[in-house]
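Aim 2 progress update. The chain analyzed this quarter is reproduced below.
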Amino acid sequence: MIRVSLPRTVARVIPLSLLLPIVALGCSRDQGAKATPDGSKAQTNAVTVAPVEARDVQRRVEIVGSIEPDEEITVYAQVSGYVEKILADLGDRVNAGQPLIQLDQADFRLQVQRVEAILRQTQAKLGAVDGKETLSDDQQSPVRQAKASSEDAALWYERMQSLYKEGAVSRNDVDTARAKRDALKATLDGALDQVRSLRDQLKEQQALLDLARRNLGYTVIRAPIDGSIKQRDVSVGQYIAGGSMQNTKLLVMVRDDPLKLKASVPERFQGQIRPGQEVKLQVEAYSGRDFTGMVTRVGPAVFSDTRTFPIEARIPNKQGLLKPGSFAKARVQIRVDRGVAFVPEEAVYYFVGITKAFVVKDGVVEERQVKAGERQDGLVEIVEGVASGEMVATSRLSQLFGGATVQVVK
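Predicted structure tokens:
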């Protein structure tokens, strides 16, 4: 019990607290009364007390910022043409590779057909039938004929040389045989060069066909990322320029899962904000609801004009509730302090800038100046002044005694 002496004319009894009831001494006005220095009697009054509670506190840094998409991409076409179909529009969610816009394909199909026809002709010259592999150089018809003639001429020249040694033919006959051999050898070399040239043409035409088919594929503009359509800038029937410096902007896409929170932190928190720390944010659209994320990047320098440094946090958004561009209030969880002292709000008194609490120890009330911190669930953190396990008075003494002078019995 806390005993407080005061003039008899202002004494009254206060109800006991549920936290720690203290029974008032005495059943009558005079029972348990003590004499004051002037000889008058003072009555013992009951007040309520509560223990100083030890709690684990998550320390947080309050920040504000804006929510931005993880990626924002402007979509252009790689070929020019007229817009034939719009396959995705504002607000649509699409997957990477999904068709967004289709251009008129007629000219591109004709180009593919033209190159295919030229390619088939070249393949036929090289002995390919129905798209099969071309024949080897030795098996090409012009080469086979030239090779046979060249070999015959070489044998005939050797025959003439033998006959010339025997005196059966003249020198002129030998020279004629040698000239024929050399000519047919040149013909063979020409046939081989022609076949190699056709093979080079075939490679070039195959490349042209691949290019034509690729351009045909480019007439369907596909999503480069998973995301949503933020903006559409073209309409059906519009001619667009593609593959040049004057490309026509078609769409703007954003990746909205995850999102990115960009915020500025006061410079006094340098060293306390690190990647990996938890972030909880709120937006006006969902008042009172927390969205959880994680710090991913911390700026290396403080901006001299604002005395803040930038941070980025990754915010999952699988349900698509958060929208890029939204303003957000956030809390960064920087650490957990264990065994922090907390007292009920009614145990803390504020007067002309001074914060006090009344500590009860061995039946004696001691007035202490304290330093208050955070508030949680009707409790106030006491940074300095009291320790966990102590007892504090929770009755407001100024209200109990109507502003009368209080004398504490020690």
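The longest helix spans residues 171-218. The longest strand covers residues 53-76. These observations will guide the mutagenesis experiments scheduled for the next reporting period.
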